[in-house]
Amino acid sequence: MTKIEKNITISGKRKKAIAKATIKKGNGKVLINKKPYENLDFFRRLTIKEPIEIAKKVLGNFDFDIKINIKGGGSESQISAARLALARSLVKFTKSEELKRAFTAYDKNLLVADTRRKEPNKPGDSKARKKRQKSFR
User: Which of 33, 54, 79, 80 has a CA-to-CA distance to 112 between 20 and 30 Å?
Assistant: First the structure.
């Protein structure tokens, strides 16, 4: 590890959800919307825990306090955005190339945003893709 700054704010997006993670030196607390991530339900907690566990393996310890504020989108999009912001903030804060490689090897979406969006509805139709068949008889 090289020089570490005081605190950094990084954002992550998924669909309409935007998560902003602020990271600083601390004792390993991760707060999501001012609540500990341990209070989330099981699968969402596991999703957030993945980058934390990888960071512990690579860096040896996890002595960072991370506050994540999420707005917009649905619950799954919010968790994905928070996971992205968390992983990005860890890489930027530690400046560790080894951590970056570990995240990319585990899951590319830990560092790269998923840019897929909902396709807009076509004019005169209530759906995005196939039109309904027209009956003449």
Answer: 33
